[in-house]
Amino acid sequence: MTALSALVRRDIRIALRVGGGALIGVLFFLTVVVLMPFAVGPDLALLSRLGPAILWLGALLASLLTLDRLFMADHDDGSLDLITMSRTPLELACAAKALAHWLAAGLPLIVATPVLGLLLNLDMVATGAVALTLLAGTPALTFTGMIGAALAVTLHRGGLLMAVLVLPLSIPVLIFGVAASQAAIVGPMTFGAPFSILCALSLVSLVIGPFAAAASLRHGLD
Amino acid sequence: MTLIDLANPTRFLALTARVLPWLAGATVILLAVGLYQSALAPDDYQQGATVKIMFIHVPNAWLSMFVWGVMSIASLGTLVWRHPLADVAAKAAAPIGAAFTFLALLTGSLWGRPMWGTYWEWDARLTSVLILFLMYLGLMALWRAVDDPSRAARAAAVLTLVGAINLPIIKFSVDWWNTLHQPASVMRMGGSTLDKSFLIPLLVMAIAFTLLFATLHIAAMRNEILRRRVRSLQMMQASRVAFSSESSAGSRAENASNEAGAA
Amino acid sequence: MSLGPYASFIVTSYAAAALVVAILIGWIVLDYRSQTQRLRELDRSGITRRSGRSAIDTP
Amino acid sequence: MQLAGRGVVCVRGGREVFSGLDFEATSGEAVAVVGRNGSGKTSLLRLIAGLLIPAGGTIALDGGDAELTLPEQCHYLGHRDALKPALSVAENLSFWADFLGGERLDAAESLATVGLDHAADLPAAFLSAGQRRRLSLARLLTVRRPVWLLDEPTNALDVAGQDMVGGLMREHLARGGLIIAATHAPLGIDSRQLRIGGAV
Description:
The complex is a heterotetramer. By secondary structure, chain B is mostly helical. Chain B has helices at 9-40, 51-81, 86-116, 124-145, 149-181, 196-246, 252-262. Chain C has a domain at 20-44. Chain C has 1 helix and no strands. By secondary structure, chain D is an alpha/beta fold. Chain D has one domain (2-195): Rossmann fold, CATH 3.40.50.300. Chains B and C meet through helix 1, helix 2, helix 3 and helix 6 of B and helix 1 of C.
């Protein structure tokens, strides 16, 4: 356990220090969401209808943007070699890295959600619903995105290719995340059904993500 | 005293150490007077007591733009005159400007709730201030992203100047965008000539907040100078350690280059 | 002085402004303390500037 | 304790780097892997470290900890330093000590051994290439591993640093450790030579 908590603490520390990218993700999220009304127009009724979708898209893009370097930095400086060799199973190390990433880059997105809800004319209930679905759904985004980050190391290609690989994987999360928040705002479905599917997706990705990422890293060794 | 005299960080530190208490004192006095006068100011016939929010909102809104102006001049100083303290001034101003812009947005939306019935309206003026706020945050992120301040300085200076040119264009286009979609519901603050009973407290508050900015900015610049001093000393320390352990083997060349790099 | 029906908004505005300014002042003061502290530590470990003066010019 | 490879084949990018390689090293012995550029010195180390998978043959450690795999008993010192510039020297070292686990030495002591104790609180970004190498070596001292795989261990180090590495390696061998080092320069300690890839 010391090994994993050391890894989590190190990654969070790096993300928050000078040069780390955790807070840039939040800024990106803010900017994307602020841009949306310029595209759809300042009609408040329309904005509050689109609000959950806009917030979810923003969070999806922001978490994808910051995931890019999850393994790449460790690969470039040789840390990944030592992590692979260590007595900690690679799957657990991957999970620890993803957890650290979610704590440093995912949680701030959820904290920023109420402010953005205000800008998109969402009421308290709607904002709460979106924040709750993001809380349940962003781990899934991180843990599926992690697979793409591992592939990026294997293929020596980051950035856009990773986005193309990962975005389709996150479609189910997006569907049920937005569906749950819409259900809470306008109905007619109950909030519970899509929300529990969302939680289930998160749990499944919590298991699959580390294994897939570790497998991809092992095969990409060179 | 000229601008050249201020170019020496040591002299700047010595000078500002003397000026800073006076500046802080003047800020406190003017703020007290301004707050007293705004408390005494009568209610507006249209806005009621919420006009009191204006006394704090308008100075912050004024500063949000004024600070960007200061940063633009500092950026010119970095790029054109290569004044050694220019990028220190620009870097120190950014978080303070962001804080004032945040306050302008916050007090604006707290005023808007009773007046418009909503915290946020995609009104042209509010929206352009929001974009200004995002640009402040982006600038701060740029300063944070690069470890070496002198390398970040030029990039930040270019971005600041582009922002200064771009902000009026953004403002104009947002105006155009906003009126295109929503012509009638935009409520305007200006238009009516302000009564003296509002104007005087507003002016006093504006001057007080400008002084507050000056105080904070100079203090933050001093911190930034000290931070850079710490940084260069730490780099010297790093190379000195190598010196003590490697000098016996006659590897002075490497150390010499290290120290040159640190200086 | 009566603040009318919207007293809470007015009070919140002033309180928020006070809070943000207090945070700014606190940040600057703490930053100054930590930088001078570091300079003093460096000074103590014998690292001085090229001019040979003490790193802390101002008390 | 004996590390032995039998008929090891290394294929990289579809090209056979070497094949049918036999080698062995016993406790207290250093093996210097020599050969021209591209002969597969680094690849051999990475094969032993489990970072590459051999296309044929076996590599095994006899007499080590039976519960651990070979890579888990190895230290690998590659070309890259595995250091984070944002963290301080001490933070870098203590992270690896915590993460790698096992028997460990006091971190401050090993920093003193490699001559970095005064820089413990400085960010690793301020270190020179030679100092980064020293910090990597401190990792080998802090966490005990019987097998050291060193790729050009004296790279970027000055004469004093090379002497220090020699001393550290002798100490490790005296403690019953085992060293495989890929090198161009003489290793500076008594070692068996393993030549791969034909004549230089």
